[in-house]
Amino acid sequence: MPSWLVVDSSILIFFDRKGQLEDFLRQKKKENYKVMIPKAIAQEVIDEPKEFAEKIKETVPELANKISDSVVRINTAIEQGLILVETVNYRKYSKVMDNVRKHLSKLEAKPEYAVKKGDPELIALVIQLYDEAKEKIFVATLDKGLLKALKPFSGEVEYELLDTL
């Protein structure tokens, strides 16, 4: 039975910049993990950078090309099934996402609308997977704010931070 590994955009970006994304994902697959991200994280690492690269390609073509290449590598990993994009049940977990957004807003000292959508959705995905599987969910992130926001759920959800570095 595979274990669920929910990863944040920080992990994908970290390994991609080191040129080790595919190796990392293949290794996790060998270790019997299913690597998952919520749709909002997919937007953070594919759609938003793609739009940004388009905007800057005339003024900073080297950076635009680096960003575009990264988008292609991450998208390829999704297409190959190395990363699974999961939809969060918004109806069931919207309160969780609202609470996480409020918590992150206070932690980061910024308005709720400025909190990235991926973080609350990632935590909701961890809870959703635990509710469905009733087994420990593994989480990988480099985002300390996200870790602080996840901590209050430790009584409801069995999860473990995976040391990926």
What labels describe this entry?
Rossmann fold, 5-stranded parallel β-sheet, single chain, 59% helix, 165 residues, alpha/beta
What is the averaged pLDDT score?
A: 88
Helicity range: 55-70%
Task: Give the overall shape, derived from the CA principal axes.
Answer: globular
Strand arrangement, major sheet: 3-2-1-4-5
Distance between termini? 24 Å
Briefly note the CATH topology name.
Rossmann fold
Biggest sheet descriptor:
5 strands, parallel
CATH class: Alpha Beta
Question: How would you sum up this structure, described in words?
Answer:
The longest helix is centred in the middle third of the chain and has 19 residues, at 61-79. The chain has helices spanning 9-17, 21-30, 39-56, 61-79, 90-108, 118-133, 144-150; strands spanning 3-7, 33-38, 84-86, 137-140, 159-161. The protein has 165 residues and is an alpha/beta fold. It is globular, with a radius of gyration of 16 Å. The chain has one domain (3-161): 5'-nuclease (Rossmann fold, 3-Layer(aba) Sandwich). The model has no long low-confidence stretch (mean pLDDT 88). A five-stranded parallel β-sheet has the order 3-2-1-4-5.
Mind sketching the topology for me?
Blueprint: E1 3-7, H1 9-17, H2 21-30, E2 33-38, H3 39-56, H4 61-79, E3 84-86, H5 90-108, H6 118-133, E4 137-140, H7 144-150, E5 159-161
Parallel strand pairs: 1-2, 1-4, 2-3, 4-5
Helix pairs in contact: 3-4, 3-6, 5-6, 5-7
Quick overview:
With 165 residues, the chain is α/β, with parallel strands linked by helices. It has one domain: 5'-nuclease (Rossmann fold, 3-Layer(aba) Sandwich). 59% of the residues lie in helices and 13% in strands.
